[in-house]
């Protein structure tokens, strides 16, 4: 079991722009735990993601977005922790007994943006996969998702939150 009093923030990535938190084990000094971070789930190196655009029965443009997210301990973050801390002999695994995953997003609603939340229960094993499917009832909503998932990697109107 990890010791919360040993928490350390480890920066990594381009210009140390990313960070994770690590904790030492209470009884085994060489074992550390990393608080995992959410990402789009990868299968065969590609994101599990689909965005479908169609003409609705009402005659307008609509769509549906389906995707999966997971928790991961990035290898780059592990390497950074091992270099900065030293003496790390291995990585422990958290045991999850309950949790929820929230997908928060904003969609156009007339002249304003309206926030929405969808909740799912993660798998509670492996990488704690959670799947989402969001109906997009207008061309504007569809374009918001297209921009959010294909933009330059800057701020997005979407957020994934795991509560475990």
Structure in a nutshell:
The chain is mainly β.
Describe the secondary-structure layout:
Layout: E1 8-12, E2 18-24, E3 31-34, E4 37-40, E5 42-43, E6 46-47, E7 49-55, E8 61-72, H1 75-85, E9 90-91, E10 100-109, E11 112-120, E12 130-136, H2 139-150, E13 158-163
Parallel strand pairs: 3-9
Antiparallel strand pairs: 1-2, 2-3, 4-8, 5-6, 7-8, 8-12, 10-11, 10-13
Can you describe this structure?
The structure is a single chain. Helix content is 14%, strand content 47%. The protein has helices at residues 75-85, 139-150; strands at residues 8-12, 18-24, 31-34, 37-40, 42-43, 46-47, 49-55, 61-72, 90-91, 100-109, 112-120, 130-136, 158-163. The chain has a four-stranded mixed beta sheet with strand order 1-2-3-9, with helices on one face. Strands 4, 7, 8 and 12 form a four-stranded antiparallel beta sheet that branches. The longest helix has 12 residues, at 139-150. The mean pLDDT is 93.
Class per helix and strand makeup: mainly beta
Strand content: over 45%
First and last CA, distance: 16 Å
* Rg, Cα atoms, Å: 19 Å
Helical stretch count? 2
Instruction: Tell me the series of helices and strands, N- to C-terminal.
Output: EEEEEEEEHEEEEHE
Q: Helical content, roughly?
A: 10-25%
Count the beta strands: 13
Shape: elongated
Instruction: Give the averaged pLDDT, no decimals.
Output: 93
Main sheet attributes: strand count, strand direction, barrel closure = 4 strands, mixed
Order of adjacent strands in the largest pleated sheet: 1-2-3-9
Which residues sit in consecutive blocks of at least 5 with pLDDT less than 50?
A: none
């Amino acid at each position: 079991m990890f010791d919360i009093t040993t928490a350390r923030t480890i920066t990594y990535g381009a210009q140390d722009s990313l960070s994770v938190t690590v904790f030492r084990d209470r009884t085994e000094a060489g074992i550390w735990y990393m608080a995992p971070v959410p990402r789009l789930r990868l299968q065969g190196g590609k994101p599990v993601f689909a965005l479908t655009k169609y003409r609705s029965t009402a005659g307008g443009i609509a769509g549906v977005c389906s995707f999966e997210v997971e928790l991961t301990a990035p290898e780059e973050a592990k390497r950074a922790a091992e270099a900065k801390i030293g003496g790390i002999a291995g990585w422990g695994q958290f045991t999850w007994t309950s949790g929820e995953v929230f997908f928060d997003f904003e969609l156009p609603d007339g002249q304003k943006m309206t926030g929405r939340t969808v909740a799912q229960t993660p798998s509670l094993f492996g990488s704690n996969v959670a799947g989402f499917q969001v109906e997009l009832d207008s061309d504007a909503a569809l374009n918001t998702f297209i921009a959010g998932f294909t933009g330059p990697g800057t701020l997005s109107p979407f957020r994934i939150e795991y509560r475990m």
